[in-house]
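Exercise 3.2. Students should predict the tertiary structure of the chain below and write it as structure tokens, then compare their answer with the key that follows.

Predict this chain's 3D structure.
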Amino acid sequence: MIFSAMLFCAPGAFAQSGGAYEITQFVIATGNRSSGGTFAVENTGGQPFAGGFLQNSPYALYIGFWTPPALAPTAARVTVGGRVTTQNGQGIRNVLMTLTDSNGAIRTTQTTTFGFYRFTEVRVGETYLLTISSKRFIFGNQTRILNVAEELSDLDFIGEN
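Answer key:
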């Protein structure tokens, strides 16, 4: 459809032959011109019908209204969490957990009475620093680098006196 408007509306345009293409309908209307590289395409101000998407590599064509804008997926959000315990498995409460994103935005939470913590609405596809801090306990690895691709519920820490 889009190419048909260009071929039939452009003054002095010539159709290419020798290929397996057949244009069965076209629209004559005014519109804008997009160009760059090898191809130029003219869009139309309105078309008499709306259609679907045709694709036969390496070309694609939208039928009906002008090609819709490409929609990028929104970043999904997940929960990240775990448990903080003593060496004998008892939960440690009120431990400060800090989650820092690659832009420096900091989120904090504290562990519950049973040592659980979690951060909700964590964006997938990003890298974070998870840091643990306690006045009473020492942790072997106080900072972890997380590449969040899915929900994480087993980011556990074991504290030593």
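Discussion points: The mean pLDDT is 75. Residues 53 and 62 are 5 Å apart (CA to CA).
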